Amino acid sequence: MTIFSAPYYCGQFDNAAAVMVVDANVQCYFKLLETSLKLEEMKVVPTKTAVKKDSSTRTLIAPDESK
Known about the structure:
Layout: E1 2-4, E2 17-22, E3 28-33
Antiparallel strand pairs: 1-2, 2-3
């Protein structure tokens, strides 16, 4: 079960993520996940828009770079 899954979301929010862990004894606990990078340390990775094939059910949507 994912509780919060986007630490430092979009480089704008100073939040942590958390996941609930269930161990072998069925004991539950939450593990906090802090972001490892700040916005200025993140790398931009260019992506391409995929062409949807007739047999494909997936489409990659490129980020809006006009903003």
